[in-house]
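User
Please review the sequence:
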Amino acid sequence: MQFKAVIFDMDGTLVDSLKAYQVAFNNGVAKFGLPPVALREIADRLNDGMLLEQIIVDLFPDHDDPAFLKACREEIFSAFRDVTEDKTPLLPGTKEVLRTLRAKGMKIGLATGRTTPSERVKNWLENIGIGEFFDVIVTSDDVAERKPAPDCVVECARLLGVPTAECLMVGDSLADISAAKAAGASVVAVLTGVAGQERLSAAEPMAVLKDLYELIPLLVPSPGIDRGDEGKQTR
């Protein structure tokens, strides 16, 4: 199928932010005397699209008081802002793939589950060198329901001016797959984020890719792209 636009998830798809999220989460809950949580425990819950408050209650069932959850959420968000920039490198292939899609004239959108205002996300992406590639940025702050609901994918496609049926979503989680399918978009998954091969394959995306480099042969008939220095990065 000929796609007119590609809509990317951000965390775990374009940037390697899982470790930063774990550090922020554990720094935040430590302020309330709670023990640190393993990376896999956090990743599994992010994979299902849980809100931060849901993750806290799921991990610490006795701590469901609304006042506590609000205070803990604020601590975690504050910690995340402190660690984000130096602990969220671009994933291998991110810049080369975005540059290739832009050179081929494809529209590019971002649909992220972050609740950060889209303007702040845009500024951050510009700071890390990829902001110029996005025609549209949509966050959970812009829509009624976050992923796995389809809202952010639908809104991103609307702003791009492309029917969802002509959009390809690229994400790393079950929530991304569910959101894309509910929106009527096609979807591929990458193994660079919160979910493994088995769970992603079971959700039946078009394909499960090892990394973003494998996206190009699906979209752009060409000899390929140079993996360059980014292709040598490791997680």
